[in-house]
Amino acid sequence: MLLELFPLVAKGYLEGKRKAEFESKREENRGKIAAERAAIKRTGKLKIRDLTLRDGQQSLFATRVPQHEIEKVLPLYKDANFYALEVWGGAIPDSVMRYLNEDPWHRLESIKEVIGDVSHLTALSRGRNLFGYSPYPESVIEGFNKNAVKSGLGIMRIFDCLNDVKNMETTIKYMKEAGGIADCAVCYTVDPKFTKKQRWKALLSGKKLPKKIFDVDYFVNKAKQMEALGADMITVKDMAGLIPPSLSGKIVKRLKKETNLPIDFHTHCTPGYGLGAVLMAIVNGVDVVDTCMLNFAGGPAAPSFELIQIFADKLGLDTGVNLESVVAINKELKGIRERIAEFDSYKMFPLEFDITADYLPKEIDALFDKAIELAKADKEEELLATCHAIEKFFNFPAANEEVKAAEIPGGMYTNMLAQLKALGLEDLLPTVLEKVPEVRVAAGCPPLVTPSSQIVGVQAVNYVLDVNSGKAPYTNVNNQFFNLVKGEYGETPIDIDPDFRHKICGQSEASDFDVNKYQSPENPVLHEFGGMKLAENEKEMLLLELFPSVAGPFLRNRKADAYYAKVNAEETEKQRIIEEKKAAFAAISAEEKYEMLLRGLYSLAGDSKQAADEITQPEEKESKLDIKTKEMLTAQKPKSRLVS
């Protein structure tokens, strides 16, 4: 009735009333929910590695969350008490310089300053390749890991795109020597899938296609090799989200039985397996799982912490996380997500859910119980359907069926599509997807993880473009594919045909990367900025070594800012002294001014050096020379932003 009589006034009144009633109900629920949680008999522990500030923002927002936004949630994260926080590595060092004009080392150090020793800070690196495409010399690998730990890193997650354990050996060594934890990742990948036509063609040509390569034994054996090299923990790293729940459970169960290390499970939600795969890992005894906060979870990112916490409560597992802090973090993250909306790949916010104050509808709560029972019974198909229903209620993106069918990482899929669209040939994508397994097998069947997934994807596009234009396959070969086939990336899961290697590289035998060919980037003296060097310390030099094309302009801008700040400070100090002298002159009496004037006149005749030293010349205006100098400096000063 009120809405009909007074629509404008009544709407605001009723909305306020309903909101107040809702918050009052929430406050009442908080006490009940807290009591119910306190009554849970916890029979085990489940540690949580939060990925929000690295993998979460990288997966959903192209690593565009700036430092000042990060700082808003750090005190809340300190109170949250997560086992670990992934905050660095991956695309962070490159992106914060390239897009945000920020210092990667400062980001890590500032996070450590707030978090302290409450949670381990973790990062991701590619073993001896670190962040690049080619191996680095020992001095660079040692310097990077040593400085990472010194700047606050606790755990380095180390992986290799070929699962070649030898490529991880030196990083393990240097991390442990520096006092850090070596978390060695076994990269999950799937076997290439061939069409019947491809199998018949291979059979007729006398070349056998590989059968099962990446089975449970493969991943377990890789983990054992890492343990033998000194790994402190093992992560099953499913970067593409392709591991189905049943298999995640089997791998975790074997690893817990056959190794003596803590096991972490990492996956993404793109193809729709993520939540079910994490639950199966938990049911089978995993020690740590990777999650993101509600507002930075789902889709290409990892599963939501809140959903995993509900499962943990029902299973009697203690995560040790302060849930009041989680609610506060999520509130801040929602605001951050709204402010970086231009980089939001989904623009699809999850349901607003306060885990400390909101009861789930009975039918949704029952889905969590059902999912646990299905996981224990290893009924994968029903488990996935149940998990999808849970995710739909929370308004997370649905499974990407194209990526699921293609069985390749989402990033690889979108990169290939973008490459074809740029040429106006996106209709060739199905053909490219058909050629991916063939190109992959020819290159030794590398796991589909950065950077090998991108290398194979680009070459598959080149293959189809060659054939489409009437050329022979592999007429155009990208440099990274050449190096991969040559052997410079390391040992591939299966042997590369010597004839194929000779066709691509001009040699039949594999050859490792010659580190002696490595050349450090130039570190010039910047004469225009007072003679300082582009990289003035080890950390800046490491940025140049690892990201030469990005760090060069970034460091130059920093040096320009520092130089002109110094010039401005010196000018300000000179002006301050002049103003002080002016004020002192203005404060003296007329008689004293008259006496000073007389002494000045005498000094002009050369009679009194002392008088000349004592005189103060009050100058009201700048000289033309000073004005000209300032104009010149202003014209020379570059804009303080990164230039490509």
What does this structure look like?
The chain has 27 helices and twelve strands. By secondary structure, the protein is an alpha/beta fold. The protein has an eight-stranded parallel beta barrel, surrounded by six helices. A two-stranded parallel sheet has the order 1-10. Strand 7 (233-237), helix 11 and strand 8 form a beta-alpha-beta unit. Helix 7 packs across helix 23, helix 12 (274-283) packs across helix 15 and helix 15 (362-376) runs antiparallel to helix 16 (380-393). It is globular. The two termini are 62 Å apart. Residues 607-620 and 638-644 have low confidence and may be disordered. Residues 46-327 form the Pyruvate carboxyltransferase domain. This is Carboxylase.
Features:
single chain, 644 residues, alpha/beta, eight-stranded parallel barrel, 27 helices, 55% helix
Brief rundown of the structure:
By secondary structure, this protein is α/β, with parallel strands linked by helices. It contains 27 helices and twelve strands.
Helices, strands, pairings?
Blueprint: H1 2-5, H2 7-38, E1 44-45, E2 47-50, H3 52-61, H4 67-80, E3 84-89, H5 92-98, H6 104-115, E4 120-125, H7 138-150, E5 155-158, H8 169-177, E6 181-187, H9 196-205, H10 216-228, E7 233-237, H11 245-258, E8 263-266, H12 274-283, E9 288-291, H13 305-315, E10 317-318, H14 323-339, H15 362-376, H16 380-393, H17 401-406, H18 410-422, H19 429-442, H20 452-468, H21 479-486, H22 498-505, E11 525-526, E12 532-533, H23 538-546, H24 548-587, H25 590-604, H26 609-614, H27 624-636
Parallel strand pairs: 1-10, 2-3, 2-9, 3-4, 4-5, 5-6, 6-7, 7-8, 8-9
Antiparallel strand pairs: 11-12
Helix pairs in contact: 4-6, 4-14, 7-8, 7-23, 10-11, 11-12, 12-13, 12-15, 15-16, 18-20, 19-20, 23-24
